[in-house]
Each structure stands twice: as structure tokens, then as C-alpha cells.
Amino acid sequence: MSFCSAINCTSSSKKKEPGVSFHAFPLNEPERCAKWVQATRRETKGHNFPSKYSYLCSKHFPDTCFREAKGRKVLNCTAIPSIFNFIKEEPQKPTRRRLLRDLQTAETSPVPKRTKVIQKPDPTVTEVIGSEHDYHQKNSPSKVAVKFQRKIKKYLRKLRLKRQKICRQKNKILKYEEILKGIKKRTCLEGQAIVTNCFEEVLRGLVKSLEEKEKNPKGEKIKLKEYSQPVRSFFRDPDVINTLEVEPSIVLGRSCSRVEWSPVPCNVVSMNFFDKIFDPQNNITFDDKKKDVRTCEYSEVDGFVITDNLRMMLLDEEADLYQLYSKTDREQFLFRLFKHLCLGGLWCQYEDSLQPYLDVTKCLYKNLLSAEKEESSGQIMIRSVVLEAVVYGDEDKPILPKDPGKDNNFVYLIIDPVERAVTVLVHQVGCLII
Fold first, then answer.
1. Fewest CB atoms within 10 A around its CB: which of 148, 193, 269, 406?
2. Which residue from 77, 99, 60 is spatially nearest to 26, judged by alpha carbons?
3. Which residues of 160-169 are buried (b: 16+ CB within 10 A; e: fewer)?
4. Residue 409's Cα: distance from chain center in Å?
5. Contact 302, 406 (CB under 8 A)
6. What are the tens digits of pLDDT across the range 122-167?
7. CA–CA separation, 381 vs 351, rounded Å?
8. Residue 53 burial by CB count (10 A; 0-12/13-18/19+): exposed, middle or buried?
9. Hey, how many other C-beta atoms are within 10 angstroms of the C-beta on 210?
10. d(CA 9, CA 16)
11. Does residue 321 contact residue 314 with C-beta atoms inside 8 Å?
12. Could you tell me if 279 and 321 are in contact, meaning their C-beta atoms sit under 8 angstroms apart?
């Protein structure tokens, strides 16, 4: 927007007066620019005048200063402004009749003893902000309205974001409540936990086995027959039969003829157990930050597709990477969980990075097992006992899991003797039930 810098001139491009154009001061011609400033009679000392934003309208130039070019008026390169109005309009002189009327009103009106004169600001006078435009008004009503409208929009946006955040939190709470109801329904936590006479037998068997372990400091084999009866009683219990799901929404529903089980070692208490995978010499990962898994040639082992070095290390016994972990290390419950997650289920889509598998493995391992600190040595020891079981039906066929020969079909009993709780971890036919 352009404003005229001449004294007593209020022309601007906003008014859009017909035939009025605006011309900038010739700053690149000092002599001519000085003549323009001298003609306007504006003070230049201490003021930023003239500047690149200073203009004069065409009202201050005579017609001889213009020439026609392509159907429009153009200012000549030697034009000097000469038309200005430096004299303000004087107010009208009061007439004789008006003076007499004012004198009569002054004589008749009572004069107070003490009067306090308050000078009211003249509404026609505006505060001068810039040196160029003396008609600019500070804090005009339109500007104040725009300022408050911006503030209102800002606070409305904050309010909308807060409401959206509260809505998302409520949806999360409802989602977690549904998940908790499903878990309670599966594990019979609504009325009572699965703590029956068979669990008392399991605890007695565990205590007896631990006592025998203390009596055999040389690491001799403990008699595994002590676990047979409690585990068999657990899977024959009516609460377990009616609540333990074999497949989605399908419970066990019948008693077992026999149960084969074996203890699973769980002595690892740190995720440093998997540091060998990140060793660059082993050529399993190639990015230290993202921990991406290095790919390999396509192959199949026991029905599992191998497309990277990680699954080659887990499955291919003929590969050199398979020797990275010994047989005892592979029997650890932490390694088993990691292997089950990496192999996945029926419709599993492999991750390119290794970190998601490690995070979920750590979360499962930490929540399934219970640990405590020994007072004498100060070391962390896992107090939970993990058993791997295979349940057989009446026809001496495996019913849980149905195909125990596959690596990702398993049933684990995780027993906490202090909290008196048994957790069953089952996976088969693409279903995970806890």
C-alpha cells in the first residue's frame, strides 16, 4: 500500500482515486531527490526520510511533467513536484450576532467559585507514529479486533487439541478394559483363580524338588517323577478343562490320559545374552543404530522360510551361524521366547530390524517370570519354574499342542511358588493364548 508523503495530503492507494498515481522518490539521483525533499518542506534530520517507502501522488505534479506511453501517463525523468498546500484552512470568524449570543449566555449562567478545567483530547487529532504518515492511528478499533480474533482462534485450537487428546485417552481406556475382561474370562479371574487341589500338589512337588536340589550340591540329576502327578492333576482339573483354550474360542473340554513334560532352564537375567548377534564378525546385522538383519539366499527348513541370517542361525543346523549358541544356551527359556517370536505364526510377516523382537522378548520374559535378590550374594535369581508339557487324549494322541514336533507349537507352565500362581503359555495353529 502506498501513501503520499506531502504535508496536508491524505492520498493513498487504498482509496483508489481515479487518475491518481504514486511515484517513489528518485533515491538513485541525489540532486533530483534533494529538489523533491526541498519542495515537500519535510524535516529530514533525525528521520528516515526519504526512504524506499516514500511516495508522492500525481496531484503535486503539473501536467507538463507527464507524457503518454502505451495509453497511460508516465512521469518524466526530470519532473519536480511544485503543487502543494502548506496553509491549513483557518476556522470561520464568528459573526456579530454569534458573539452577542455567547455574551448573553455567559452573563446568565452562574459561575462556580472553584472550577477545575479538564482538557479533553481532540478526537480529530491523532497520535503521530511515523515521520512519514501523520494520519496513522495507533491501536485503531479494527486492529484491536483483529488482535483479539487471532487470540480467540489460538485458544480455540488449543481447546480442540485437548478435547481430541481426552477422546483418545478414553478410547485407550475402553480398549484396555476390553482386553482385561478377555484375560479375566480366559483365566477365570472374575470369580476365583485357578488354584485348586492340583495346584497344592504342584507346590508340594516343587518344594520337595528344591529341597533335593539343595542336598545335591554337585549338580546331580533330580528325580523328575516328583512333577508327574501334580502336572497330570493340573490338566485333569475341571476348571482348567473348561477354561484353557486350545484354539480361539475352543477350550480343552476333556480330560487327558497322560502328560509328558520336561523342565526348561531359566537362569539368564540380562539381555546381554544376545550380544553375539550384534557382533560384526558374525554377519547377522549390518546397522548399529537400526540393527537391521542381513538377508541371505532363499531356503526352507522344517516348513519355515529362511530369507535372512537371523533365521538361518535359529533353524539351519548345517550353517556355521548355528554354532553361535550352544545346545544349553538354546534350551534357555529366554532363547526359546526369542526364537518363537522370530519364527512367528501362520501369517507372520518378518521384521527387517531386530529391535522389535528383542523388545517383545524382554517384555514377555519380565512379565512371565518372577525374580528375587539373594541376601547372601546379592545376585538376582529367578524363582519361577518353567515346564514344557505335551498333553495326550484318550486315544494317546497329542491334543495340546496337536503337532508337538514343530518348533512353534508349545505349551509352557510357568509356576510362581511364592505368589501361588500358574501361567499357561500356549501357541499352535497361529493362536497365542496366555
1. 148
2. 77
3. eeeeeeeeee
4. 36
5. yes
6. 555 444 444 444 445 566 788 888 888 999 999 999 999 999 988 8
7. 32
8. middle
9. 14
10. 15
11. no
12. no
Model pLDDT for residues 282-295, shown as the tens digit of each residue: 888 876 666 788 88
Nearest residue to 263 via CA among 369, 368, 387: 387
Type of residue numbered 14: K
d(CA 314, CA 335): 10
pLDDT number for residue 196: 39
- DSSP state letter for 181: H
Tell whether the torsion through CA atoms of 232, 238, 240 and 244 is positive or negative. Answer: positive
- Residue 219, classed as helix, strand or coil, is coil
> Each residue of 375-398: pLDDT tens digit?
777 788 888 888 888 888 877 788
CA distance 230 to 81: 112
pLDDT of residue 155: 93
Task: Supply the DSSP string of 34-101, one letter for each residue.
Answer: HHHHHHHT---TTS--S-TT-EEEGGGS-GGGEEEETTEEEE-TT--------SPPPPPPPPHHHHHH
- Residue 22, helix vs strand vs coil: strand
Element (H, E) at 33: helix 30-40
| Cα–Cα distance measured from residue 26 to residue 30, given in angstroms and rounded to the nearest whole number | 7
- Please state the separation of Cα 388 from the chain's center in Å: 40
Exposure string over 254-274, b if 16+ CB within 10 A, otherwise e: eebeebebeebebebeeeebb
Residue with cell 470568524: 93
277, containing H or E segment: none
Cα angle value 79/85/88 (rounded, 5°) = 165
Q: Quick one: pLDDT band at residue 180, thresholds 50, 70, 90? A: confident
- Hey, what's the cell of 369? 517370570
Residues in CB range of 356: below 8 A, 6 or more apart: none
Torsion sign over Cα 60, 64, 70, 74: negative
Kind of pairing between the strands at 250-251 and 380-382:
unpaired
Length of the chain: 434
pLDDT for 96 equals 62
Indicate the residue type of 229. Answer: Q
Q: CA 330, CA 315: separation in Å to the nearest integer?
A: 11
Q: What is the C-alpha to C-alpha distance for residues 194 and 280, in angstroms, rounded to an integer? A: 47
Dump strand ranges (E) for 124-268.
245-247, 250-251, 258-264
Residue with cell 557382533: 279
